[in-house]
Amino acid sequence: MQDHDASPLNDYIEYSSEEMLQRSEDFYQNIKRRHSIRSFSSRPVAKEVIENCIKAAGTAPNGANHQPWHFVAINSTDVKKKIREQAEIHEQNFYQGRAGDEWLEALKPLGTDANKPYLEHAPWLIAIFSEKKGGLSTEDKNTNYYVHESVGIATGFLINALHSSGLVTLTHTPKPMSFLSKVCGQGDNSRPYMLLIAGYPSDDATVPHHATTKKSLNDIATFL
Ligand code: IYR
């Protein structure tokens, strides 16, 4: 390895084989209770919880540690209303034909449509942005690497953190998403990546059967 500053790995925790197996099983049992929810309660969620989850997302592996992401956490009623209005306009176009027949057919079992009341009902919307230029310091304007991969992994961490904290989420990608940059006051360097809705589920929240069918280990994995 090339010469570089480094300190010893001092926060690794080794578990016994039994504990490792148990923890992997526990993790699976917990994460399989994560569902995309489309009906949210308006019960408030403390800002500190969202802050912790975003801090967790910020630890994700990423290209050259430039951390090419920005999270805009929205609790403001006004901003949520604006996002809902804009998203629903785009979604109406999408569902009225822009999606195309095959895509609309694929979405049928999920029961989605152009109405997005949860964009106003849920306590928190988290708009995730990717940054083309950056660096270790927020002021840097160097090339960022593996931006899509990095922001995707950070988004996964964020979803996991929110789920583990006891909240439910929905990943939402209104198409096109450019309106989010304006509503969230983001400049040219950042691109909207995804909108996460987070909060408590409403009492009548449901999970579509289609979404609970998961491929088997044999289908998704090959061991050589
Ligand atoms: N963005 C739209 C459509 C949509 C697309 C996919 I792929 C989904 O898995 C779910 C929805 C919407 O939010 O309704």
Structure description:
The chain is of the alpha+beta class and about 220 residues long. The protein has helices at about 15-30, 45-55, 75-100, 100-105, 120, 145-165, 180-185, 210, 215-220; strands at about 70-75, 125-130, 135, 140-145, 170, 190-200. It has a 4-stranded antiparallel β-sheet with strand order 1-2-6-5. Strands 3-4 form a two-stranded antiparallel ribbon. β3 and β4 (about 140-145) form a beta hairpin. It binds 3-iodo-tyrosine. 3-iodo-tyrosine binds near residues 91, 112 and 172. 3-iodo-tyrosine binds near residues 91 and 107.
Looking at this protein, list some descriptive labels.
224 residues; alpha+beta; NADH Oxidase; 9 helices; 6 strands; binds 3-iodo-tyrosine
Look at the structure and give the mean pLDDT.
97
> Which structural class fits the helix and strand makeup?
alpha+beta
Q: From the 3D coordinates, which CATH architecture would you assign? A: 3-Layer(aba) Sandwich
* Radius of gyration, taken over Cα atoms and rounded to an integer in Å: 19 Å
CATH topology (level 3) name: NADH Oxidase
Poorly predicted runs:
none
Q: Count of helices?
A: 9
DSSP strand tally: 6
Give the distinct bound molecules: 3-iodo-tyrosine
Terminal CA distance: 29 Å
Strand % is 5-15%
CATH class, named: Alpha Beta
Q: List the domain count as a whole number.
A: 1
Q: Helix proportion of residues, in percent?
A: 40-55%
Rough outline: globular
Tell me the layout of helices and strands.
Elements lengths: L16 H15 L15 H11 L11 E6 L2 H22 L2 H7 L10 H4 L2 E8 L1 E2 L7 E2 L3 H19 L2 E5 L6 H5 L6 E10 L9 H4 L4 H4 L4
Antiparallel strand pairs: 1-2, 2-6, 3-4, 5-6
This protein binds 3-iodo-tyrosine.
3-iodo-tyrosine binds next to loops.
